[in-house]
Amino acid sequence: MKPIVISAILLSALSLGACSHNAKVQAVDINSYWHDDIFESVKDIPTPQEVFSLPQEARDQLLRDFTRAHFGTGNSVSAHEWLAGQLNADKGGFKYYDNYTRIASVTYKERQGNCMSLVVLTAAMADLLNVPVEFQEVLVEPVWDQQGEFYLLNGHVNLRLLPPELKNVAYFRPDAIQVDFLPERAMRGYAKNKLNRQTLLAMFYNNLAAEALVQRQQDRAYALVKQSLQQKANFTPALNTLAILYRYRGHEDWAEDAYRLALRYTPEDLTTLYNLALLLGEQERLEEWAEIHKVLELARIRNPYYYYDMAQQAFSDHEYQQALTWYLRAVEKADYRHEFYFGLSKAYWATGNERKARQSLEKALALSRDGDRQRYQSKLNAMEHH
Fold it and tell me: Are 155 and 14 in contact (CB under 8 A)?
């Protein structure tokens, strides 16, 4: 099976998690799309209340610290300013960890997670201090990731802490404070969509479902995607995830139903169109496939893994110069993927450019972590002793 695309909100990218919905489309009873009998029940799914809950010890400590800061000095600080300083996310106060969506209590303890984890934690702390928040989807450039047989199309969310609404008080500086791993100046040039809490929860649960699906925990993924759609029944990324689960359980008719429902709400959603095209192609429904493929062909060049896959095939066929061209195009589209630079290093080495092969491998090493780092370091050591 070709790689399937999952939409998720993980770090920086085009967020398909909050696509605009056609208000004229009549709502459908989502309950008719459940097929619980083909999945095992999973009990430990966090409730919406638990997503934003902090341990009592953390709540007590937070209130003590704020009270001390607010009343213990001559310069009283507002709650939203104090909280932003405590989080200090854009200055390393929290460690970014992609593909890691967690509830507030876990993120509070571990001090790491993705942008969704940071947003949920911040909102939980803000709720305790009665600080109003504003959730935002940031429309930045697409960031792609490949996890096993899945492509992850990542999106980005953050939030703003709003000042307390006090009567007869005029603010002579920017009122809201943005909380993000990225500096606010880096976000100024991008459009943003405001999100309500239900939509954010739909994104949150679909993130967890996508992560579970990548880890082959299909029963858990199903329970999580149900939670996502119970928050927002017309949430296209979750309908896409639901369809993927039905395909893996061998029910392509149910999968197609979910894809078609998603397209009723967002007819031009490329993720859903791509996955539906895979299904139609495997069923040899070529006329329907061709209609969708016309749209996809125009969008395919946005996906850096298209060029990477072409490069991998050319390298496998010993067409090293052609592979080099494709790897360079992949890097041009996504210069944050370590595997692209590793492929580039192999192609440079095969074409006799040892200097650029080393440079590319050093770049792959710098972008990688864990097991890949060890592998790249070993190959770099072998190069240096060549």
Answer: yes
